[in-house]
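ESCALATION

Customer reports they have been waiting on this structure for their group meeting. Please prioritize. Original submission:
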Amino acid sequence: MFTRDVFLEGFTHEQWARLGDVFRPLEAADRRAARDADGPEGGVVAVTTGTTLRKVVSTRVGRVDVREQPWPESLEALAARHGARWAAEISTGALDELMDRFGERLSPGQDYLGQALEFIAITRELEAEHLITLFPWRIADWPLPSERAVGRALDLLCPSEKSLVLGVFEGGALSTCLVARRRGNGFDRLVGPDELARDLGLLSGDFRRDQRHLAAAIERRVGKIAVGCYGELHTFRELAGAREPGAWARAVAAQDLVISPWMPAVALPLGLDAGRAAFREIQELASRFGAGHLFSRQGPLVQAFMGLERPNFLGEDVREFLGFDPWALLVKLFRGR
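Update from on-call: job pushed to the front of the queue and completed.
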């Protein structure tokens, strides 16, 4: 995804650190309460040697005393006992084996995307050898796109010599931003707010207006923008913790987020988000009239979908191009896996 000579400029330490805050969910008391009401959170990892449990670590509470853990047990039971969404069992030495194989397969001309896909492919091998086990989704079930598919998607989103922009405002000022310019097969320049400040001028305090000044400064200093996403810091953090369908689509419709320039590659995910929200509304309406079972996972509509034959346009050519089977993924999602 990045060129070998990628250049980072225009960031202070504070501005760079703020990028990490943009998508960190708000931890207000009401959000924590909503999160607890939704069910399990985080994950738990068990490190084993054969049938012997060596270590248990929870992403919520840290290390757990292994003497208090019944073992062996299924990963589903382990996750349930710790109130976790997922669980993993890792054999002693599995991570060393992962890094050894990864190092052996790296090549000098390989880009970051190829390295990332190779890394995931190796974890699939270790899973097949029972050195790594995950619940509820196996690594083999993860849709792994091909390099060609990712490249085509990137071409649609950000052609060469154009940039992707994230602009974050807070308190009437520019909090931080990230401009990633693409050149060839990767991004060769990452630019922060310090590089743009001299061209930004005075801000009005309304990010919907100020994003235009930011965009103009970027085009003078970096080049043409393929697509930009602009908003207030609190909006990004609220959306990062939102689970209800349609949250992102509503934010764009209400101009709490501004997408500019607009392009079809952005409209597709927002349309899917809006479609999820519409389906949720239909489910709730049907439940009020006593017909909620029609839209449940075991209901006739979902079962009818499961019985459909694979469409012809999702044949082997599509599977080979994407690197995974989109129809099989869709069926798994409808099954609630």
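Sent to customer with the following note: Confidence is low (pLDDT under 50) at residues 28-36.
Escalation resolved.
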